[in-house]
Amino acid sequence: MKPDCRMELTLQRLRELELYAYQVAHFLLKNDRLAEEAAKAALLEISRTDKLAETPAEELRLRMRKQTIRASLHLAGTALTTS
After folding, report:
1. Cβ(42)–Cβ(68) below 8 Å
2. 12, 24, 65, 70: which has the fewest Cβ within 10 Å?
3. Cα–chain-centroid distance for residue 54?
4. Which is nearest to 52 in space by CA: 4, 2, 18, 11?
């Protein structure tokens, strides 16, 4: 696969996961701003995955959920200690 095609496919896959990440984070955090931050952190972490474009959709969704939960818990802990 050509590098440009791989990059486009990777971006498409991340866009498909964006709403899902936000929904998971918002369910846990009940806060729009924190959910946006958690989703962004999870998407950035997932974007560093090798061969993201070739990863099966279900596996990618599972990884996204796990990473979003991690990011949400981290932000929730940070929010508690700073308030």
Report:
1. yes
2. 12
3. 17
4. 11
